[in-house]
Design goal:
Length: about 120
């Protein structure tokens, strides 16, 4: 985390940060969040259940931050599937989402075999 923040302060223009390693609690359950989310929550910088999500129950909290130098192609997160609901927050610029129906799976150029949709 320190290297990431130093890079930002020094004006680094290409970066990526993710918080995927959630760990397990002493009773064997997956943790809800990991660093830096735990520190942000402990400091009161964000609520455990934001009012915008209504009655949804958070399964985990992750942060993805990334940037590339300005270009005509911009930044891409690539084709992927998320298992949990997402709340996407864009701080600067714009993001285009292409959401495909399950019926499109046979037409995708996947790496490996699609076993189920």
């Amino acid at each position: 985390m320190r290297d990431f923040l130093v890079g930002l302060e020094e004006g680094q223009t290409q970066y990526y940060l993710t918080t995927q390693d959630l760990g397990v609690s002493p009773d064997g359950r997956p943790n809800l969040m990991s660093s830096p989310c735990t520190e942000l929550f402990s400091n009161g910088d964000f609520p455990l259940v934001p009012s915008i999500i209504g009655n949804l129950i958070p399964m985990n909290y992750n942060i993805w931050m990334g940037s590339t130098p300005s270009s005509s192609t911009g930044t891409s997160s690539g084709l992927h599937h998320d298992y949990h609901d997402n709340l996407y927050v864009l701080l600067r610029g714009r993001k285009h989402f292409r959401i495909l129906p399950p019926s499109a799976a046979p037409s995708m150029l996947t790496k490996g075999e699609v076993s189920a949709v």
